[in-house]
Each structure stands twice: as C-alpha cells, then as structure tokens.
Amino acid sequence: MQLTQVLSKDCTHSISDCQSKKRALEIISELAATQLGISEKEIFDSLFGREKLGSTGIGQGIAIPHGRIEDSYPPTAIFIRCEHPISFDSIDKQPVDLIFALLVPGDENKQYLKILAAVAEKLHNKQICKSLRQADSDDDIYQIITT
Length: 147
Prior knowledge:
Radius of gyration: 14 Å
Shape: globular
Oligomer: single chain
C-alpha cells in the first residue's frame, strides 16, 4: 500500500498553534472536511469517539487517530507534525508531535488494516521519524512520509 493513495500534499502540515489533543483532532477534522466535503463535526465526533475508547498515542511521540466515515467516501489520511509536542495520553506517557490520522469508510476493514500496517511500518523507522521532525517544509514532510 502506497501512502500516496490516501494522503495528499494538501493534508500534510506542520502546525505551530496546536496545544492539546482536542485541538489536534479539530485541525485534522478541518483538513479532512476540506478534502472530503464532509462536516468537520462529523469527522471530529468520529475521531474523538475513538479516542474515548483509548488513546491512539502509540509511543515515541507518535499517534495514529482513526475513525469511520460514510461508505461513499474514500479512505483519507491527514498527517500533521506539531511543532510543540502535546499530551496525547500515549502508552509511554510521552508527548506526541507526529500524528497520522486515518478516516475510512465503515465497510473498508481490509484496506483499513493495510493502510495501518503501512503507516506503522513507516513510523517505526527512527530515521524517518527524525527526518519528519527536522523537515523544513510541508512539501518535505510529504515527501518523507510518502517515499
């Protein structure tokens, strides 16, 4: 699975004004709503509802929030790098600065698992994470995460 199939340059950003998990999910919802034409509230509610079940902060400064969208929309990813790490209730109790959010249609379980596997493999690489944290622009971030 190539991440370019679900992640666009328009949905890849370095964010300086993100102070909390809630704000990060709001930013992700804004970007996804623009990309998909779905209401921000619907996206936020899906992501926030999943977070209520347990944090998607997987450790080492990384979170992979995810939620379900209507079946008529394609799987869509948003990647943000927070310039200032935020509390995300991560498994290792460390703040998060790399957030890869995934929105998938309710009936897309196989594709969902393939995307998650590709993301996990990419973000498990410490050199890639270091490069993402040091990238100078949104374009650089996009190139690093998708190649």
